[in-house]
Write a structure and sequence with these properties.
Layout (H helix, E strand, L loop, with lengths): L1 H13 L7 H5 L2 H13 L4 H14 L6 H6 L3 H4 L4 H18 L4 H9 L10 E2 L4 E5 L10 E2 H6 L7 E5 L4 E2 L15 H4 L15 H21 L9 H22 L3 H12 L1 H8 L6 H16 L8 H7 L11 H5 L9 H11 L6 E2 L8 H5 L6 H11 L4 H9 L4 H13 L1 H10 L3 H16 L2 H11 L1 H14 L2 E3 L11 E3 L4 H4 L4 H11 L2 H9 L1 H12 L7 E2 L12 H21 L8 H21 L10 E2 L4 H15 L12 H22 L8 H11 L8 H14 L2 H11 L19 H20 L8 H15 L4 H7 L15 H10 E4 L13 E4 L1 H7 L2 H7 L3 H18 L30 H15 L7 H16 L9 H4 L15 H4 L4 E9 L3 H5 L1 H4 L4 H8 L6 H17 L2 H6 L16 E10 L1 H13 L8 H4 L2 H4 L11 H15 L1 H12 L7 H43 L25 E2 L6 E2 L7 E10 L28 H15 L2 H7 L7 E12 H13 ...
Antiparallel strand pairs: 1-5, 2-3, 2-4, 6-7, 7-8, 9-10, 11-12, 13-14, 15-16, 17-18, 17-21, 19-20, 22-23, 22-24, 24-25, 25-26, 26-29, 27-28
């Protein structure tokens, strides 16, 4: 087949543009295709092949003016009528037809798909795609699955997470190289290659002919489009070309999706070298092809690549040269050194960077293989396609096409090799690119697919020298930004480092290459090759040394640095990514004994590189002062490989250690860093700005510490264990600059450190020593112990969430290391050391997360302050850990006072590091400890408790780690040295502790007190002379001696020549001349360490002779020394513990301690001491008293605060708090008194100076969300589930109102119902009052306040000055007296008829108000303005229901509906009924009373026409019945039975003059109850069946004449039925209706229940109203007796009513006129209406009065179900998939958050929806973030998430991607805040949304 194709190709390229005869064109494409296919199927297919070639030549000719299209505007003209796109489309059509061979293209696709052996998924995705990663199933850490494969596989119980792809990726399902087969999904489990039939030859035959030409055509387009101008081609041009090629590339992409059969054809085409050669060589007469080939050569050249015509060079690139490239190195180097490499690359960058200050350094090194960098030879389409893909900076479409082909194994190998071959070119393009971020992502998108596969990586490493290429390319890349190092010897330094300010480092441009390198090093077979190849190791160490000493900090000594550079981010990132991560990768393969050789190699080359570095920076023995670099990757490589060698490979440490001199050099820089850390924390670097603190923090931060500080400390431990301990200790104190402080004298002079820094530097030095000696991370702890110690340290600082713990535990950065976060060991250790605290929900509290807190036994035994100090980024965390420890001890009763950090036993040292403990047993350290103890005892300045603590810690460490027996050969060893060491006889701490020191000679300033005292001594001979005689040398001349001696030892051991080279550095400690003269004094000391300790005990306890050896009482102590009593405590305990240990270690010590205790003498003459003691005692007493006083004050303050909080702040829970009375109810005060919270005065509210309540007005649609079924609606999670709002309360009321408006007079309709179910105004108050004029000035001050507030003052918003609750208006308090109120409440004995008359008269009296409206007072003005506020709170559409706009009836309706809304909402807050009675305080803090006054005032402005007043119809029989019916053209009034009774109640009450009398109120209620009861009877009669009706009609009629017929529901019902039967109400029923009615047989009980349920809502609202107006308590009761209790409370029940027999609702009736008359009058109206509209008449009678409480939608258990459905769902408005989808939790609407697509008049969709659905309140779940966002009016806030993971944590933005589950408590809290309208009060972080959500 291939031969035929080749022949055809040759044939084609010979005939220049062979024109097909014209008829060929006329033939339609399908016929031509069929004809050609037939011709090609013949055995001799030359003719057919030539014909096809000719056709393709014409169709796909590259002569088309593409260049023109890319260049400019003449494209349209040149392309003819069709424009530039037409020809391309035509060509594509031809190709499709030819491929299908005459058939339909779609059928062809289907046919090919049938042969797909889909063993791999291979789905390619781009950035932002949601994919999954399962660590349980993955072999490679980069493994990922598409959502479909993940959900179809079984991953229950696995460690998986969902993630958003950053760079794009591909699905690995079915690839057993990358993941375990158990994780494959159902589709890819079957290895289906066997049962797929063979592909028929003729199916793909045409493809094999057509595709080579098609791809060549594409390549020609790419060559054409790329103009290599002088400057870099602009993005625009490249994008233009790519846009034109879009259809072609998409066509190829579609081909790849046809499955395996088509992929293998494509692979053949892409990799066939013959095809490529024939088509592209540019030979032959075809001018176009020639031109294209020239362009290609130009492009190659301009990329700094040569086209190797020279066969010799070419040989290198041949894979056959499988040897290491180093073999041909010498020859390759000759082709030109890197230094002179093609300058275009370098120069333009230099120019653009403008790095004036620092000159770049270029390396001209011959070590690298030129061929890697500069030779490219393309031998197939695939190679040239990749070349152009890179040139065009990886267009997404091309990348996807190349990746889609990967399931084809043959292609995969070919492509990987091609990719490697182009690696250097990729790097060059990346460096030049402007869009390096996008390009990096695309590169990694490809490379991660290739290099994650170990088999493939190994193959490429062997055949294409992958490792050489990668290392060389990295080295080359970094060489472009080197500068001279300024470390140490600035002038003569030969070392070069990377410049962290360069874009390359700042923008992390190198990361794709480094990440590939890390990826391939994770494969064992590849890493082994690396570790065995010495040449590579040398090159790599060379690369690492570029980072050694980068980002040098120089301490600013004079003024603050002008510009804080932020380069340290780049430096730390570079060291972590380019040095540490490859190191961890290599280390993971050095785990067993067999790998010792690798470690030896690395260590060897690492030491060589270090030696070169020391030479290059001219390092002798003293580091340059005042500079520090945190970056020593070579040191860290060395340290980590040493650690691994000892820990895992059983290597002998000494065999890989250098000589002593090298060790001394090695320790200098890490030690310098430790000292600098102390300096930075002592504020000595403060002039360098904040960034230096940032560096100190980053150095110890959890992601960096195990690649930075841990190796540094380990290296220092190794050095300390092998160097002379005295030398090491003295170096430490010298580095920390505190040598001068360590003197016995009370005053001293420090030439290198300011006095204010001395203390913290001394603390730093001692702390460092403690860490150095206690830390065992690399010295013998197992991995699990390390993990446990890290975890305990983090948990002791603070309780932690699971995810923050994962983040804070330094994990080995290499993913294959074994301790994977979340691995088994992590979870088991966590459960061993910590308890889980489930999240708690205080309503109104902040949302808490699930936390882990240390178990008690961890505090008791494992709390390790040293580890805590090592791991804290912020110093405050150490304090936090100590505070928590203190609290634990107090709580558990172990220790009451302020404890010291506990001393913790350490893991035993690994034998290789035993030498470390010699530090504790060297004289230098003992002298330091002795001196410090003495100074502390003598109260010298600059010493702290911390210093003492560390000193004692070191002594204790020494006792714990002493050589068991007291060695007596000390003397013989130190024979010659003995003479100038009168300090201590030996070097063992145990024996030195008891050694008494009598005199010490010190150098002191002349002003020191010692000089005066010992004048004779100070005149003695010069110090050196007296050194031998008196043996009282001053301590640190000794150190200098040691150092000199040590230098001598080393110089002697090294060659003589060396001595000449090393000049002795000048002694830095000479004092400047200006300082006061130093003079010598001799001090009498006469103490030993033991005696100092005992005196310290006295000093600390403040008592004489306080120490008494414990063993004298209890000899047992010496036998079993582990006593819990000593494990926790303060300094006293520590001293006791040390003395006990000292006594245990030697009998001599024990005896001496006892002696000292016997003859204990105060350290100074007795009388002075007693005075001091008295002083301290006085001080103690005074302190104690002060403390008590403070406690008392605090307690008082706390109780005050508590009571305030209780009264003011119970924002959320109306259930359980103390009532706050607004008005005082004592009868003797005549008027209510209010306190103003602004001016603090109290007084009554008056007309001139009214007081008001702080209120928040908000529109609410909560009521409208009530539904009549108990089952709450679920959030839809499939297409089938939908939510329809027909059954909501708001919808039902809307329908009712519009029905009434269709048939009745508008003004009367507006009185028959209430509105406000949607967009009703809810008024709430915090209960605080203020003068309205005070409020105005308060608002003025807020307006002038420049502080950014969370609310908008212009909209009248403010926070209550007292409790800071959010508010936006002030409700005036009506000036009223309580006494008057009480008078009104006296029960009057008037009968109901009189009362009815009075009510009617009062309603008719206009403005019968104590305040006449005409005279405007302040009060009435305020009332008007608050009414305006109330109106403006809600949108116009929620206020205007009348047909005539602006009609007064509208306002009237709106006003009484406000009252209704507030009453209904209060009822809902009480749980929907009043059973709990008056205990609820919602009433106490309610503002209904004031609100009623305001509403009543405004309602009275609209007097109702007396004939329309419903009161008339309720209480009188109307005679002229016919007048109404006669008047046909005018719409009738609403019949009274259709009126909503609660609305009538509010209208009646608000029309009365205020304050209202109680008996009038009761009268109104009684009258309305009769109407309500009748309505209930009517509704019942409509509901029941025909038979029931006739039965009842009959039974009731019999009893009609009994005495209390008017109070019997049976009688009344039968009467109602007979009355309504006169009309057509019951006739309309066909048979279908009966089916609808529930077929229950109505018993007397069920009727009674129905009637009670019908009346209850009215009774509840009425009782609430009575409670607010008259301040009467609500009785509590059981649910079943609610009706009777409320009716008696309202005065409906006659007082003499007996409660024995079952309660009958009808007994509450009290008819104002004869019942039967008025009922028949009411029924008559209905009959009149049903004559015409029986259906509607019936619908209006059945009112649904039993609404259930409102609920938010019910959410599914698992978040994934929501996410999977909604994150790909298209928006119904714009039909796109939103970028930020959200769903409303009230009604389930799907919206685009911030989507500009759905914007309407500048409102984005969420804001718009919040107005329509919640009248300004919206609750949305953001699908991609799992959080809930609240929109309230013009503000919004992030509320938090109601989905938590298994550890009780939110996962905002789904970053961790762990499975999330609903947290029911949180959801309840959310719902509660929604119902109680308290979002504004509880959530604190509000911001304006500017309608942009």
């Amino acid at each position: 087949m291939a031969a035929a194709a080749a022949a055809a190709a040759v044939g084609g390229s010979q005939s220049p543009q062979a024109e097909l005869p014209a008829p060929g064109l006329a033939l339609d494409k399908a016929a031509t295709a069929a004809h050609l296919k037939a011709a090609l199927s013949r055995p001799d297919n030359r003719a057919g092949a030539e014909e096809l070639q000719a056709l393709l030549e014409r169709v796909l000719s590259a002569e088309r003016p593409l260049a023109a299209a890319a260049d400019g505007e003449e494209a349209a003209a040149a392309g003819g009528g069709g424009g530039p796109g037409a020809a391309e489309e035509e060509a594509l059509e031809w190709c499709k037809c030819l491929l299908a061979g005459g058939g339909g293209y779609d059928e062809f696709c289907a046919a090919v798909r049938a042969y797909d052996p889909a063993a791999l998924c291979g789905l390619v995705w781009t950035a932002n795609f949601v994919a999954y990663r399962c660590r349980t199933c993955g072999i490679s850490p980069c493994m990922s699955l598409c959502a479909e494969c993940f959900h179809q596989g079984d991953h229950t119980g696995h460690d998986f997470n969902m993630f958003r792809s950053q760079a794009g990726g591909a699905c690995d399902c079915g690839d057993s190289n990358v993941m375990r087969e158990s994780g494959f999904c159902k589709r890819h489990q079957i290895k289906s290659s066997s049962n797929i039939p063979c592909v028929p030859k003729d199916l793909l035959m045409m493809s094999e002919f057509v595709l080579p030409r098609f791809i060549f055509c594409l390549i020609q387009y790419l060559r054409e489009g790329y103009n290599e101008p002088a400057d870099v081609p602009s993005e625009k041009d490249l994008n233009k070309v790519l846009q034109l090629l879009e259809p072609q590339i998409s066509f190829l992409e579609d081909l790849t999706k046809m499955g395996g059969a088509m992929r293998s054809v494509l692979t053949q085409v892409l990799t066939n070298q013959q095809n490529y050669k024939d088509l592209t060589s540019g030979l032959g007469e075809n001018a176009c092809a020639k031109k294209s080939h020239e362009k290609y050569l130009i492009a190659l050249k301009s990329s700094g690549l040569t086209y190797p015509e020279d066969k010799l060079v070419y040989g290198i690139q041949e894979p056959s040269a499988g040897t290491s490239t180093l073999a041909v190195q010498g020859f390759a180097g000759a082709t030109g050194t890197l230094g002179q490499l093609d300058s275009s690359d370098e120069e333009d960058q230099d120019g653009s960077q403008g790095l004036g200050k620092r000159k770049r350094v270029k390396l001209s090194s011959n070590t690298k293989d030129q061929s890697i960098m500069d030779v490219l030879k393309h031998k197939s389409f695939l190679e040239e396609l990749l070349f152009w893909t890179i040139k065009y900076e990886f267009p997404q479409k091309m990348v996807t096409f190349l990746l889609n082909m990967l399931p084809d194994q043959e292609y995969k190998v070919a492509f990987t090799k091609t990719f490697v071959q182009h690696y250097a070119f990729i790097m060059k393009t990346l460096k030049k690119s402007h869009e390096s971020d996008t390009m990096s992502n695309r590169i990694v998108h490809i490379s991660v697919q290739l290099f994650s596969n170990e088999e493939l990586a190994r193959q490429v490493t062997e055949e294409c020298q992958l490792l050489d290429i990668m290392v060389t390319v990295l080295l080359y890349m970094m060489e472009s930004c080197l500068i001279k190092s300024e470390l140490q010897d600035e002038e003569n330094s030969l070392h070069v480092v990377v410049n962290c300010g360069e874009a390359l480092l700042k923008n992390n441009t190198y990361w794709p290459l480094v990440s590939d390198f890390i990826n391939i090093l994770s494969h064992q077979s590849v890493a082994k090759r690396f570790l065995e190849d010495h040449g590579l190791l040398v090159t790599w160490m060379n690369f690492v040394s570029f980072f050694q000493g980068m980002n040098l900090n120089k301490r600013e000594l004079n003024e603050h640095v002008e510009f804080e550079s932020q380069t340290y981010y780049a430096a730390f990132a570079a060291e972590l990514e380019a040095c540490a991560q490859p190191m961890w990768g290599l280390l993971s393969h050095c785990k067993v004994r067999e790998t010792q050789e690798y470690t030896r190699n690395v260590v060897r080359y690492c030491l060589e590189a270090l030696q070169d570095w020391f030479d290059a920076i001219n390092f002798v023995d003293e580091p340059a002062p005042n500079q520090v670099t945190f970056h020593l990757p070579l040191h860290r490589y060395y340290a980590m490989f040493l650690s691994k060698a000892v820990k895992c490979q059983e290597l002998d440490l000494d065999s890989v250690l250098p000589d002593q001199e090298m060790l001394m050099k090695l320790m200098i820089h890490p030690l310098q860093i430790q000292a600098s850390l102390a300096e930075i924390h002592s504020n000595m670097w403060v002039r360098n700005g904040l960034q230096i603190k940032g560096q100190a923090m980053t150095y110890v931060q959890s992601h960096f510490c195990n690649s930075m500080i841990d190796p540094d400390i380990y290296l220092l431990q190794v050095c300390a264990s092998r160097l002379d301990p005295d030398y090491f200790i003295s170096s430490v104190f010298e580095r920390f600059k505190v040598v001068d402080l360590l003197t016995m004298a009370s005053q001293h002079q420090n030439t290198v450190l300011d006095a204010e820094h001395e203390r913290s530097m001394l603390e730093g030095a001692l702390t460092f020593l403690v860490i150095l000696l206690s830390l065992r991370l690399h010295l013998g702890m197992s991995d699990d112990e390390i993990l446990r110690a890290e975890m305990v340290a983090q948990l002791c600082m603070n309780d932690r969430t699971h995810s923050s713990l994962l983040d804070l535990i330094p994990e080995n950065p290499n993913p294959k290391s074994g301790i994977i976060p979340g691995s088994y060991s992590f979870e088991s250790v966590l459960s061993a050391v910590a308890d889980f605290k489930a999240p708690v929900f205080e309503p109104g509290g902040s949302m808490q997360q699930g936390m882990y807190t240390p178990k008690a036994e961890v505090w008791d035994q494992e709390f390790d302050p040293v580890m805590v100090i090592l791991r804290t980024v912020y110093r405050r965390d150490v304090q936090s850990a100590m505070d928590r420890y203190t609290a634990f001890l107090k709580q558990s009763g172990k220790f009451p006072g302020n404890p010291w950090p506990p001393y913790k036993k350490r893991t035993p040292l690994h034998p290789s590091y035993k030498g470390l403990m010699r530090l504790l047993h060297c004289k230098t350290l003992h002298i330091v400890l002795f001196t410090l103890l003495y100074k502390i005892l003598m109260d010298h300045q600059n010493l702290s408790e911390h210093v003492l603590c560390m000193v004692l810690y070191l002594i204790e460490l020494g006792l714990e780690n002493s050589a068991e027996e007291e060695s007596d050969e000390e003397a013989s060893v130190c024979g010659p040295e003995r003479c100038h060491d009168s300090w201590f006889p030996g070097s063992n701490l145990v024996s030195n502790m008891r050694h008494f020191i009598n005199y010490v000679r010190v150098r002191v300033p002349e002003t020191a007190p010692e000089v005066k005292r010992d004048s004779p001594a100070s005149t003695s001979s010069d110090s050196l002379g007296s050194l031998q005689n008196s043996g009282t040398a001053q301590v640190f001349s000794l150190v200098a001696e040691r150092r000199k001696k040590f230098q001598e030892i080393i110089n002697r051991s090294s060659s003589e020549a060396n001595q000449v080279v090393r000049p002795k550095t000048s002694n830095k400690w000479s004092a400047p001349g200006s300082a006061p003269q130093l003079t010598t004094a001799i001090l009498e000391i006469k103490e030993s360490i033991l005696s100092l300790l005992i005196k310290l005990h006295h000093k600390l306890s403040g008592k004489q002779n306080s120490y008494y050896p414990a063993w004298l009482d209890d000899i047992e102590i010496l036998i079993q020394p582990e006593i819990p009593k000593y494990s926790h405590g303060d300094g006293i305990t520590a001293v006791e513990r040390i003395l006990l240990k000292a006594a245990l270690q030697s009998r001599m010590n024990k005896r001496i301690i006892e002696e000292i205790c016997r003859k204990v003498t105060p350290p100074v003459p007795p009388k002075k001491v007693t005075a001091a003691e008295k002083k301290t005692l006085d001080k103690e007493e005074r302190r104690q008293k002060a403390r008590e006083r403070q406690q008392k004050l605090l307690a008082e303050f706390a109780s005050r605060q508590k009571s305030f909080m209780e009264t003011a702040m119970d924002v959320d829970s109306p259930e359980n708090d103390i009532p706050m009375e607004i008005t005082a109810a004592e009868p003797q005060i005549s008027e209510a008194v209010y306190d103003c919270v602004i001016c603090g005065q109290s007084g009554p509210s008056s007309e001139d100076r009214p007081t008001g309540l702080v209120v928040l007005l908000q529109a609410s649609s909560v009521l409208g969300q009530c539904r009549d079924n108990i089952e709450p609606k679920k959030l839809p999670i499939t297409e089938e589930e939908q939510i329809y709002p027909w059954d909501t309360c708001a919808a039902v009321h809307d329908v009712r109102l519009s029905l009434l408006q269709r048939y009745f007079k508008d003004s009367s309709c507006l009185l028959a119902v209430s509105i406000g179910w949607e967009g009703g105004v809810y008024v709430q108050t915090c209960g605080h009052t203020l003068h309205i004029d005070c409020h105005k000035s308060y608002m003025e001050s807020l307006r002038n306040d420049q502080v950014l507030q969370g609310f908008s003052v212009d909209k009248g918003e403010f926070t209550c000055p007292l409790c800071r609750q959010f508010a936006n208006s002030v409700l005036p308090c009506y000036p009223g007296s309580n006494v008057e109120n009480n008078l009104w409440q006296r029960p009057s004995n008037k009968n109901i008829q009189d009362l009815i008359k009075e009510v009617e008269e009062l309603q008719g009296r206009p403005g019968a108000f104590p305040v006449s409206i005409s005279s405007e007072t302040n009060l009435s003005k305020e009332m008007e303005s608050v009414m305006k506020d109330i109106k403006n709170t809600t949108q116009k559409k929620y206020r205007d229901y009348s047909k005539t706009p602006g009609s007064p009836d509208n306002d009237f309706l709106f006003m009484y509906s406000v009252a209704r809304t507030n009453l209904e909402l209060e009822l809902i807050h009480r749980g929907g009924n009043l059973c709990s009675g008056g205990a609820s305080t919602a009433g106490k803090r309610s503002c209904l009373n004031q609100l009623f006054h305001v509403l009543a005032l405004h309602m009275r402005l609209y007097s109702i026409d007396s004939e329309y007043n419903p009161w008339r119809k309720l209480t009188q029989l109307v005679e002229e019945v016919n007048s109404q019916l006669g008047n046909e053209e005018q719409q009738p009034e609403v019949p009274i039975l259709y009126h909503d009774v609660t609305s009538l109640l509010l209208i009646q009450i608000l029309m009365m003059p205020q304050p209202l009398r109680k008996d009038h109120f009761t009268c109104i209620v009684k009258v309305l109850f009769t109407l309500l009861y009748t309505q209930a009877l009517v509704a019942l009669s409509v509901k029941c069946s025909e038979e029931d009706r006739s039965a009842w009609k009959h039974t009731g009629a019999l009893k009609k004449n009994t005495c209390d017929a008017e109070k019997s529901h049976e009688v009344l019902l039968s009467f109602v039925i007979s009355e309504l039967s006169k009309g057509k109400l019951y006739h309309e029923e066909g048979t279908q209706e009966c089916a609808m009615v529930s077929p229950i047989a109505w018993s007397s009980e069920s009727m009674e229940k129905y009637l009670q349920d019908f009346c209850l809502p009215f009774l509840r609202i009425t009782s609430l109203l009575q409670h607010h107006l008259f301040g009467e308590d609500l009785p509590s009761c059981q649910e079943e007796e609610e009706f009777s209790v409320l009716s008696s409370c309202l005065g409906l029940l006659p007082t003499f009513y007996q409660t024995e027999h079952p309660f009958i609702s009808a007994s509450c009736l009290d008819w104002p006129v004869p019942a039967f008359d008025i009922i028949s009058q009411w029924c008559f109206e209905i009959n009149g209406f049903t004559e015409r509209h029986a259906e509607q008449g019936k619908a209006l009678l059945i009112q649904e009065s039993r609404w259930k409480l409102p609920h938010l939608l019910q959410l599914p258990e698992n978040y994934n179900t929501i996410f999977q459905y909604y994150h790909r769902k298209t928006c119904s408005v714009c039909t796109k998939v939103p970028k930020d989808p959200a769903v409303c939790l009230v009604c389930g609407t799907f919206v685009c958050l911030k989507g500009l697509c759905c914007k309407q008049q500048s409102y984005c969709e969420c804001v718009l929806h919040s107005q329509n659905c919640g009248a300004g309140t919206g609750i949305f779940l953001l699908i991609n973030a799992s959080v809930i966002i609240i929109i309230r009016g013009h503000r919004f806030c992030l509320w938090g998430s109601v989905y938590l993971d298994a550890h009780g944590e939110e996962d905002r933005d789904l970053r961790r991607g762990k499975p999330l589950y609903i947290c029911k408590e949180r959801y309840k809290v959310l719902e509660q805040q929604w119902i109680s309208h308290t979002f504004d009060h509880i959530n604190k972080r509000w911001g304006p949304h500017y309608n942009g959500l």
